[in-house]
Amino acid sequence: MRPLRPRWHFRLLFVLGCSLLAAWASHSRVFWQQDVASYDLLTGDWEYPPDPRLAIIAIDDRSLQQLGQWPWPRSTHARLLDKLHQAGAERVALDLMLPEADRNDPAQDAALAAAISRNGRVVLPVLAAPPSDEAVPEELLPVPVIAKAAASLAHSDIEIDADGVARGLYLKAGIGSPHWLALGAALAGVQEPLPGSTNPGASTRSPYQWHRDNYVRLRYAGPPGSFPQLSYVDVLEGRVPASLLQGRLLIVGMTANGIAPRLLTPTSRDSWMSGSEYQANVASMLLAGNAITTLPAGAQILISALLVAFAAFGITSRFRWRWLLGVLAIPVPLLLSLGLLHGANLWFAPVSATMGFAAMMVIWTLWQMRYWRRQANRDTLTGLANRMRFEETLRRENDAARRSGRPLTLLLIDVDHFKACNDTYGHQVGDRLLRHLGRTIEEVARRPRDLAARFGGDEFALILPDTPPAGAEQLVQALISQVRQLSIPVDKAHHSKIKTSVTIGLCTVLPGLEDGPARLFEAADTALYQAKQAGRDGYRVAPPWPN
Predict the structure, then answer these.
(1) CB 123, CB 89: distance < 8 Å
(2) DSSP element (H, E) containing 351
């Protein structure tokens, strides 16, 4: 027997159902944790040489020990900026929040502003923070005198995923509209247009909320420590040669334990990365053109659905190795994701499609198992129950009739002169005759518990639970009449047809405690023999059993 190939509408329903399941999973982000795990797997070791111009001036533990308790006077930062300017640094991101004026010594703000102005290439951070839990966020800018001196302001908002890992960022953000570049982007000096997915709801933005745009996945140059770090105190005190600072893109930020922000990244699950190195990675990624963009939600859903649809079409086809095709299709979404990632810096979340493939295989396997179970109890020529199922059903219905005290009817049906038909017209016509008879007999078994079966070459049977003798005789008469009206095609070229008839043995009983299905079958078979002896094309009713 061939494995079942479903009719086109069942096949279409299966394909559509599997693809819609994958589309729903993709839209709902059901497997987001598995997707980010796949992303970490594919990008965790995907290193590249960082831009050699980038370096971090670290406010580290040694600097704190030598320069004293934090925060330091702003004139200290002014001295550092002058050192960097004299050394010929190309651009400096001073990753320090300066939202309030120095109340003890206003000259400190003026000194820092003057140094920033002299340098001319200093980027300062902006952060959104609500003044209280219930208030709308506000932009925390440097004090006006310092902000005015800066070459540019940039947001330092770091995007953290729900599992605590920093995988991406928004290149633009701001209150009311995303107007600030990310700090690393400003340090790199990138210009519009920026990479990344944009927010389609820009026209309906609230003027009081922090909005973000141009989302990209951050491709890290490597694990923590991939960028050179110079101690703040060494630069300040002239222990770093000017040649090491000339032409550099520098980030001045916290790295000291207990003070610096600590981030987990796909490259640093076992160690922390500082916010300054995070920004260095942003700048290096943009300078190298390595920003990873995510597929739009619609494209993500469509690709997931189409992958599963193609696989479902394949597994329901006549292809000999379709099971192997289904198994090999499971890693396809991951391979596609890998190809898009390394070939086009595009991220496709693969797990919804992968799970769609797995669900498709499970559903198809269960459906095929159900089919094989049905085939084990089905006659392959007529589609009726075979002898094994007939005997099981007769035994079960005999026990049910004995318990309920309701009648059970058995019909044994023999095709008249079937051997002569085979000898005259051939087995192909004989098979056609049996199929037509099988459909006619099956139409009689309308109730759920009725069973039509073929248990021999030209022998059929009908099990009719809860059927009294009068009703059984009416059914037999109708069946004989319908068979007489059949016209079985013999030769399509000459439109010739043959007629046929059946002989039936009928027995209706109320089984007693000692009565088994064998007795019922024997009685019906005896009635069938008597009907044949009487000339065929008719029926006989077995006499009632003695009590």
Answers:
(1) no
(2) helix 351-376
Rounded Cα distance, 283 and 276, in Å: 11
In terms of C-beta density within 10 A (0-12 exposed, 13-18 middle, 19 or more buried), how is residue 202 classed?
Answer: exposed
Q: Which pLDDT score is estimated for 8?
A: 64
How do beta strands 180-182 and 152-155 pair? Answer: parallel
Distance CA 277, CA 251 (A): 8
Q: What are the sequence ranges of the domains in the chain?
A: 8-42+295-375, 53-289, 387-541
CB 156 within 8 A of CB 98: no
Helix, strand, coil content of the chain in percent (nearest 5): 45, 20, 35
Query: Model's pTM, two decimal places?
Result: 0.70
CATH topology of domain 387-541: Alpha-Beta Plaits (3.30.70)
pLDDT for res 488 = 84
Phi, psi of 259 (to 5 degrees): -120, -45
Kindly list the averaged pLDDT for each block of 10 residues, start to end, along the chain of length 547: 53 84 92 93 92 96 93 94 96 93 89 95 88 69 94 93 92 91 94 81 70 93 93 95 95 89 83 92 95 92 90 73 68 91 94 88 77 71 87 91 91 91 86 91 89 89 93 92 88 73 92 84 93 92 75
Strand 180-182 versus strand 229-231 pairing type: unpaired
What is the structure's pLDDT at 217?
94
Do residues 449 and 394 make contact, with C-beta atoms less than 8 angstroms apart?
no
199/135 Cα distance (integer angstroms): 24
Measured CA to CA, the distance from residue 387 to residue 454 in angstroms comes to: 6
- 251-283 exposure pattern, b = at least 16 Cβ within 10 A, e = fewer: bbbbbbeeebbebbbbbbeeeebbbbbbbbbbb
Interatomic CA distance for residues 313 and 105, integer angstroms: 76
